[in-house]
TrEMBL record, chains A, B:
Pfam families: PseudoU_synth_1. HAMAP family: TruA. This is tRNA pseudouridine synthase A. The active site is at D69 (nucleophile). One of its GO terms (molecular function) is RNA binding. One of its GO terms (biological process) is tRNA pseudouridine synthesis. PANTHER family: PSEUDOURIDYLATE SYNTHASE (PTHR11142), TRNA PSEUDOURIDINE SYNTHASE-LIKE 1 (PTHR11142:SF0). Formation of pseudouridine at positions 38, 39 and 40 in the anticodon stem and loop of transfer RNAs. It comes from Oceanirhabdus seepicola. Belongs to the tRNA pseudouridine synthase TruA family.
């Protein structure tokens, strides 16, 4: 299936030799309204495009692997752009990093096949959600962890997590405000680890609906405080009703951790 | 041996019933000139005393377990003070935390024996030093980690660490500007762990000279970049010459992690 970006890429290649350059970046989302460029609000995409345009002296449009919500972080985010630059691709990171603000950094820059598209080539993602589970508030990394005061039973949360695995209709785990063709998604794994006072919930899937990870986490927390039983996850999935699931967990605990471009890596 | 604090405590107890209250606190040191109260610079001790005085409506003097340097953090710091308060000691943390700034928190407050003294009763400490070992700069928790760009050979650092274990004269690992009776200290253990891009160096000892942990870390880094061989640690210790040791590693990577009040816990 041809899409507009691919047609555009093909046309550009007829006119002149464009390189397709992939960036792996990391960002602290605390000060951004997510990845996607928008009016009146600062986004990671806007900052990156502005700095690439300044560096390469071309008008650069960056394609991202995912919209991330306002304040959500990325341990690894993949994006790509077309450029006629003569700078060797692997050197772009060294030239770009000093121009970027402290909370965005390029981990890697490489030339990729012209058909590579950060969004359409992506076959899966891993998100990680961090909870500080203790009575008193945090003093370190407050913008990157969700502080939860009440006791959470991690064993019960682990039992509940198993019900999400597999191919399901996740309509109950989607915030309104996004239009998608289908609400069916496959979750490969959910790993919950407690280390001292920090609980991490790692979710891998082929795709995620709007706020899906945060609603899954919010629902697992309801299990952790004994408000719902682990088995109730089945009922929520079956009824497809957002009102049955837990609240959307806050954005500051969420990190995009890994992006998969091959089904082999995802499984 | 009686010291001035103990005599003071004894006298106070004759006059009226004072409680000896121990606090376990955690603080992010980024915005403080260390623990110790001083003129013209904000310290953790000053903030804590001011808030305790406000809460308890008595003039409170807090005794800390250790001076920590400017910008150094504490995962667990122990201090104590005398008070005639009627507030149950274990409730003080709930009353005090809302008064404290975001970067200081009380983990626990309990009444202890009147002879307990945070500094004199302390028989050992564990410090942890965090290094982000990667080419590109950090975007998360920049104020709590030391970013080191060049490759560090952790295996060599582990070999070097062993030479510090035991009772030695650590004169070469002391910054000038402090007067101590003896520069002999005992190090119980040094554990170096690499997890992805983060290296943590955990040092446990019966006491530490001024900047001792940071100079040990700075010297281990010299080993990690092959500037000195692990065996050279023996020469530095033997010569007792500060100039032979590595530079003092920056304060932002250092955390006081544990305080021991019983020799049994230390070993």
């Amino acid at each position: 299936m041809w899409n507009i970006d691919q047609i555009y890429s093909w046309r550009n290649n007829l006119v002149d030799k464009f390189k397709n350059i992939k960036l792996e970046i990391q960002y602290n989302g605390a000060n951004y309204y997510g990845w996607q460029k928008q009016r009146n609000h600062i986004s990671v995409q806007e900052v990156l495009q502005k700095k690439l345009t300044q560096l390469l002296k071309e008008n650069i449009e960056v394609i991202g692997c995912s919209r991330t919500d306002s304040k959500v972080h990325a341990l690894k985010y993949v994006c790509n752009f077309k450029s006629k630059t003569n700078i060797p691709c692997e050197k772009i990171k060294y030239a770009l990093n000093p121009l970027l603000p402290d909370d965005i950094v390029v981990l890697d820059s490489i030339e990729v096949d012209e058909m590579f598209h950060s969004r359409y080539s992506c076959v899966g993602k891993t998100y990680v959600y961090k909870i500080l589970s203790r009575e008193v508030r945090p003093v370190f990394g407050r913008e990157g962890i969700y502080h939860y005061k009440d006791y959470l039973c991690v064993d019960k949360m682990k039992v509940a997590a198993k019900y999400f695995i597999g191919k399901h209709d996740f309509n109950a785990f989607k915030s309104s405000g996004s239009s998608v063709k289908t609400t069916i998604r496959t979750i490969q794994s959910i790993n919950i680890i407690k280390k001292q006072q920090e609980i991490t919930i790692e979710v891998t899937g082929d795709g995620f609906l709007y706020n899906m990870v945060r609603i899954i986490v919010g629902t697992l927390i309801q299990v952790g405080i004994n408000k719902i039983e682990p088995e109730y996850i089945q009922t929520i999935l079956k009824n497809k009703d957002r009102k049955l699931a837990g609240p959307t967990a806050p954005a500051e605990g969420l990190y995009l951790k890994e992006i998969y471009f091959s089904k082999k890596d995802l499984l």
